[in-house]
Specification:
11% of the residues are buried. The protein has a three-stranded parallel beta sheet, with helices on one face. The chain is globular, with a radius of gyration of 14 Å. The model has no long low-confidence stretch (mean pLDDT 88). It has 72 residues and is an alpha/beta fold. Helices cover 18% and strands 26% of the residues.
């Protein structure tokens, strides 16, 4: 099983996923030092204090989460 995420920051979510699916391969685009030990594959490692701007976060005013727009 493959688990894919855009970012592993503190590792809290990754730890929960690992506990639920310990045999899964965990891949992420960006890994920060605190979350890096829980990731099997990543594209880029960034410093813990780096803020990554994703397209869905780039509204000039508050944006509702995507899940709220689609009823999910």
């Amino acid at each position: 099983m493959l688990i894919d995420d855009h970012l592993t920051d503190t590792g809290k979510t990754a730890a929960i996923v690992r506990a639920m699916m310990p045999q899964a391969h965990f891949a992420t685009a960006y890994a920060k030092p605190k979350g890096r030990p829980l990731v099997d594959t990543f594209v880029t490692e960034v410093s813990q204090d780096t803020w990554i701007y994703f397209p869905w976060d780039m509204g000039f005013t508050y944006q509702k989460p995507i899940a709220e727009h689609h009823g999910g």
